[in-house]
Automatic annotation (TrEMBL), chain A:
The chain crosses the membrane at residues 12-31. Keywords: Acyltransferase, Membrane, Transferase, Transmembrane, Transmembrane helix. It comes from Lactobacillus rodentium. InterPro entries: AB_hydrolase_fold, DUF915_hydro-like. This is Acyltransferase. Gene3D superfamilies: alpha/beta hydrolase (3.40.50.1820). The keyword rRNA-binding does not apply. The keyword Ribonucleoprotein does not apply. One of its GO terms (molecular function) is acyltransferase activity.
UniProtKB/TrEMBL annotation, chain B:
Keywords: Cell membrane, Membrane, Sugar transport, Transmembrane, Transmembrane helix, Transport. PROSITE patterns: PTS_EIIC_TYPE_3. GO terms for molecular function: protein-N(PI)-phosphohistidine-sugar phosphotransferase activity. It comes from Lactobacillus rodentium. This is Cellobiose-specific PTS system IIC component. The gene is celB.
Amino acid sequence: MPLNSKRKNKFIIIVTLAFLVILAIPTFFWMKNTNKIMAERRKSMMSPVIMIPGSSATTNRFNELVTLLNKDTHRNHSLLKIEVQTDGSIKYSGKIDRNDNEPFIVVGFENNRDGYSNIKKQARWFDIAFNALTEQYKFNNFKAFGHSNGGLIWTYWLEHYYDQYEDEISIKKLMTLGTPYNFDETNSKNRTLMLNEFIKNKKKIPSSLIVYSIYGGESYDSDGLVPESSAEAGKYIFQNQVKHYTAMTVTGADAQHSSLPQNKEVVQVIEQYLLNTQKERENQQPANNIKRFELNSKKKKK
Amino acid sequence: MENIVLRATLWFRKKIFFRITDQTLKMVMPLAIIGSFFQFLWRSVFSDDSLISNICYFDNWMPDSVYNAAWYACQGLSNVIFNTMGLFVVYFAAHFTAKTYHKDAQMAGLTGMLSLLLCTYRFKQPDSSNLQMNFNWRSLGVQSLIFALVVGYIVGLIFRFLGADFRHVSHEDSKRIEKRAFAAFKPLVLSLTLGLIVGALATIVQFEVVASNIYQFFQNEGQNNLNIWEYVPLLILALVLNWMGMTQPILQLTSNSSSATTVANLNYALRHGSSWNVPNKFLGNSIYQSYGRFGGSGLTLALLIAILLIYKYQNTVRVARWSFIPTLFSSNQGALVGIPIILNPLYLVPYVFLPVLNILIAASAIALGWVPTSAYPILTGTPGPLVAFIGTNGNWNALILSLLLFVMDILLYLPVVKIAAKVEDEITRINEREGREVAFE
C-alpha cells in the first residue's frame, strides 16, 4: 500500500474523531435542554381550554362566556387572548395567572372571513399560535372549544397539524357549538367538499378524544343560521373514530346561533363536560404518556 | 485457526454462486455508495428528527423552500436507487453467471430482470385503465437482494444449459444479432415460465401477507420483549438474514418507534431525573441501539476503520473511504454492498456476533449498576458511539463503555480484515494460474 494512502486513511480517522468531539458539544447542550423541557412538560399540571371563535368574531367573542363561567364556578380562570395576523405574527392581550391550572386561551384571526379556503388558512394561523403556546406554557394536555366556524378550524387542525404534537401533548376533549360541518346545506346527502375531505381524513383524529357537538334549536330545523342537519353532520366525521361523540340540542331562550355562547344551558354544559371536574382537579397527576421530545423544527411534510 | 478460516472462506469463494455475488455487488457498488450518501443527507441532515437539523437550528435560519427541496431531492434519489436495486442486481447476477459459462450474458441479464418482475408482479391487482402495473416492491429493492441474486443465478444457469455458446465481440453485424436473438428464445421462455409460476404461487399463498406478519412479529419482539435471552437469538437470526441481503427483519426488530415499554421507561426517567432504575431495564432493542450498532448493523463503522487502518487493496479502501461519512451516521448500505459485506462468508461471524457480544457486555454493565439503561429518546443520525451518552441524558460511564466497546470491535475486526487480504491474495493467485481474467479488481 502506498504510504500516502495510509497517511490519508489515518487523517480521515483522526478528522472523524475530532468531528465527533465537536459534534458532541452542541449535542450535549441540546440533549440537556430538551430533556429538561420534556420533564417540565410531563410534570405540568396546566390543562388550558383553548377557544376559537367563529367567522367575523374577534378574540373578545368569549368575554361574556368566561365571565359567566367564572361567576358560576367561583374559580377565577384567567383569560389570554391571541390574535394571529395575516402575516403570521401574533398579538397578545390578557395573561395567564401563575397558579391558574385551567386558563382560557382564545385564538382569533385578523382575517376572520368565512369559506373553506379561509378555514384552511385560519387552521394554519392557529397552528402558529398553538406552537407558540406550547413553547411558552409547557402543558401536556388541553381541551378545545370552537364556536361556529371555530369548530371547523379545530377539525381541520386535528386532521392536518395535530400529529406533530401528539407525542407530547394530548387533546382531551373537543366541544363544538353550532358548528356547520356541512356549511349551510340542509340536506345531509349533499356533502360539501369540506365535509367530504373531513370524512376522508377522519382517521387522523385521535381515537382517545371525547367530542361534544352542541347546537341550538331556535326553530325545529335550524338555530336561525346553521341548519340542524349541517351541525349534525359532525357525526359522519367523529362517530366510530373518537372515543365518545355526544350531540346535544339546546332550545329555549338564547338558542339563536350568535347567542349560543352566552346561553345559560351552554354555560352549564361547558362546566359539566368540558372543564375539569372537582374530582379530576383533585386527582390530577403528571402525565405519563410523553413519547418523545419536542423537535426544533415541526414536521412540515404531510 | 487462521488457516482453517482462510481455507473455509476460499472454499466458499470458489463456489460459483458466491463468486457471482461478489462480482455483482462490486458492480452495483457505485449505485449503493451514491444512494447511501443521499440517504444520509435525507435522514440525518434534512429531516425534522435528525440530529444535524436540530442542533443547527435549521428551522430558524434555513428557508423552508430550500429545506423542503433538499429533503425531497435526497429522499427521491435514495429511494429510487434502493427500491429498484434488485433489478440491477438480478441483471448482473444473470449476466455474470451466463458469462462464466460463455453464454449470451446481456440477453441473460435482460431475461433475469423480466423474470424478477414476473416473480413480484401482483397478478390480482391489474389496472387496465391507465397502464399502471403493481409490483411487490419490497422484493425488488435493496431489502431483499438475496432474492434477486438467486433469481439471476438461476436464469444464468438456464442460459448455461439451454443457451447457445457465445463470445462477445466488439463489432456485430445484423446476421450475428439475429442469430443471437433466436438463440435466446429457449432459455427466455423457460425463465419466464418459471418466473410466472413463482409469481402466481406467491400470489396464491399471499406471500406479502405472510411476509408482513413475520415482520410484525419481529417488530413486536423488538418492542416488548423484556428478556434479553429471548431477544439475542432473534437478533442473531435477523443479523444473519441481513448479512444474506434481507434487511427487513433487522429493521423491524430494532425499529426506533416508541412502544409502551419505552414510553414507560422515558416517563420514569423524566419523573426521577435519571434512567437508573427504569421499569424495563433490559429492553433488548434499547441496548442494541446504544451499544450494538456503531454505524449501522454489524458495527460497520468499526469494520471500515479496520479496513482503512490495515487493508492493502486500494479499491476496497476507496469504497471504505467513500462510504465512511454515511456509515458514521448509520446509513451503511453503501459499505454493505460495496465492500462487499453481504454474502461475504468471511464477515458472517463478526457481523453477527460482535453486536451480540457488545450487547451482552452492556447488559452485564447495566446489571452490575455501572451504567444506566438508555431511556431518553435519540435523534436520527446520532453517530453510533454517542448514542448511549445521549440515551442516558449524558451519563459519562455510558460514553466510556461505548468507546471501549467501539475500540474492542475495531481490534476484533483487524484479524478478520487481515484474513480478507489473504483471501484476496489467494484468489488473485488462483485466477492468474487459471489464466482467467480478474473481473474488476
